[in-house]
Amino acid sequence: MYAVIEVGGRQYSVKKNDVIEVEKLDLKAAKDMVLDKVLLVAKDKTVEVGRPYVKGAKVEATVVKNLKGEKTIAFKYRRRKNSHWTKGNRQELTQLKIKDITFSLS
């Protein structure tokens, strides 16, 4: 069984026991949460697609930890103008472990 969920404006395909990194959520480590923005649920040969979300479907997850992602560098250079700049960014992330996907046919 797998599901496609929406967290922080992005979509993730998840299965039970998957660990995903999403944009930072204001939750402490070891907290449980329920994600109800489920776009698609597939079990065996049954696929349920939501319009926009699947009713009665939810994904239970646990916050593993809050962390920072890899550093990304932006560099701009203008030739012959003696002009350049460098900027870096580390995105703050939250690591989630998927505990369970529940889905009821309605």
Secondary structure elements and pairings:
Blueprint: E1 2-7, E2 10-15, E3 19-23, E4 32-35, E5 38-43, E6 46-49, E7 57-78, E8 83-103
Antiparallel strand pairs: 1-2, 1-5, 3-8, 4-7, 5-6, 7-8
Write up what this structure looks like.
The structure is a single chain. With 106 residues, this protein is mostly beta strands. The two termini are 18 Å apart. The relative contact order is 0.31. The strands form two sheets. It has a four-stranded antiparallel sheet, with no helix packed on it. The chain has a four-stranded antiparallel sheet with strand order 3-8-7-4, with no helix packed on it. The chain has one domain. The protein is elongated and about 65 Å long. 0% of the residues lie in helices and 70% in strands.
Proportion of beta-strand residues: over 45%
Average the pLDDT over all residues and give the rounded result.
95
Q: Into which percent range does the helicity of residues fall?
A: under 10%
Query: What gyration radius follows from the Cα positions, in whole Å?
Result: 19 Å
Largest sheet: number of strands, sense, barrel closure? 4 strands, antiparallel
Which class best fits the helix and strand makeup? mainly beta
Strand segment count: 8
Determine the N-to-C terminus distance.
18 Å
Residue windows where pLDDT falls under 50 for at least 5 positions: none
How many alpha or pi helices? 0
The number of distinct structural domains comes to 1
Order of helices and strands: EEEEEEEE
Neighbour order of strands in the largest sheet? 2-1-5-6
Report the principal-axis shape. Answer: elongated
